[in-house]
Amino acid sequence: METGNHTRASQFLLLSFSDDPALQPLLFGLFLSMYLVTVLGNLLIILAIVTDPHLHTPMYFFLSNLSFVDICFTTTIIPKILVNIQAQSKDISYTGCLTQMYFFLLFAGLDNFLLTVMAYDRFVAICHPLHYLVIMNPRLCGLLVLVCWCIILWISMFHVLLVMRLTFCIGTEIPNFFCDLAQILKVACSDTFINNICLYVATALLGMFPFTGILFSYSQIVASLIRMSSTGGKYKAFSTCGSHVCVVSLFYGTALGVYLSSAVTHTSQRSLIASVMYTAVTPMLNPFIYSLRNKDVKGALAGLLSRATSCH
Q1: pLDDT band at residue 203 under the 50/70/90 scheme
Q2: Comparing C-alpha atoms, which of 9, 3, 5 is closest to residue 184?
Q3: Contact 267/20 with Cβ under 8 angstroms?
Q4: How far is the C-alpha of 33 from the C-alpha of 30, rounded, in Å?
Q5: More confident residue, 22 or 237
Q6: What SS3 state is found at 136?
Q7: Beta partners for residue 93, in sequence order
Q8: How does 51-68 read in b/e, with b if 16+ C-beta sit within 10 Å?
Q9: Which end of the chain is flanked by fewer CB atoms within 10 Å, N or C?
Q10: What is the pLDDT of residues 81-137, one digit of tens each?
Q11: Res 4: pLDDT
């Protein structure tokens, strides 16, 4: 254990991307652009789904929830980055750090759960098409989303309460540009054994079960597609799953990249790049993936923009 003044620090220092003053405007513009594109893109998806009656189906209900979570996810992190770049500061208060960590865990977990629920929705639609509307009724869809929120709310709060037990040295620097739980535990000045055990168990359960559910759903979907005799039916079924497969691959791929970069390499810049991909790039790309690969969403967006233009 490190010797020194062990106390509940009033603030932490976040690792910056670069201390070069010439790069600060470029970094500010880059993150601001990514944030605005993410918010605008996901808002358009939500508005298109809400305003178009043809999109009032379980699949698009879950997609609108995913877009809302992505907006909140990036809002948890990027505005603080912009403030620190503009103020040329690395500071984040103790309370602000715990708050950011809580919402990061909350919205990252919701992303994970919603992708699993969307995979189940596609499984029912393709493998049990005649019973789809009966199984995926509005009550069940609302209940699935509510259960996702309740589980992640309590798990995130549990981790925050455990972190509040820890002490930190004054001037502690978190080796990331946001308050990541794993990085916070590494810089704590008190014993983190219980925190690490809870983190590993939660990561294993919340990572393994949803991912297993996604794999099971798509294994059944592939088996159902193989049994289909109609080529048109296979193409239509595949097109409804293509966007979701891309988003799932992007989400789990970047999450795995963050884990490997922090566990295997000791290069902070590589870890930062992996974290940027996970926290900023993935939520920004999701609206493009769903809009470019989905005719219904493109039609709803075109109608939304035309109505906005005519009203103007």
Answers
A1: confident
A2: 9
A3: no
A4: 5
A5: 22
A6: coil
A7: 11
A8: ebeebebbbbbbbbbbbb
A9: C
A10: 999 999 888 899 999 999 999 999 999 999 999 999 999 999 999 999 899 999 999
A11: 44
Which contacts of 255-263 are long-range, i.e. CB under 8 A and separated by 24 or more positions? 262/182, 262/183
Question: What's the pLDDT score for residue 262?
Answer: 63
Of 77, 84, 117, the C-alpha closest to 11 is: 84
Domain map of the chain by residue range? Answer: 6-307
> What is the topology classification, in CATH, of domain 6-307?
Rhopdopsin 7-helix transmembrane proteins (1.20.1070)
Q: Give the position of tokens 């109505």.
A: 307
Element (H, E) at 121: helix 94-127
Q: Of 152-156, 249-253, 259-263, 300-304, where does mean pLDDT reach its minimum?
A: 259-263
Average pLDDT score, the chain: 87
Round to whole Å and give the CA distance between 60 and 47: 11
CA distance 185 to 182: 5
pTM over 0.85: yes
Give the closest residue to 115 by CA, choosing from 70, 51, 182, 52: 70
Summary count for the chain: helices (H), strands (E) = 11, 5
The most distant pair of C-alpha atoms in the chain lies apart, rounded to whole Å, by 72
Q: What is the mean pLDDT of residues 200-212?
A: 90
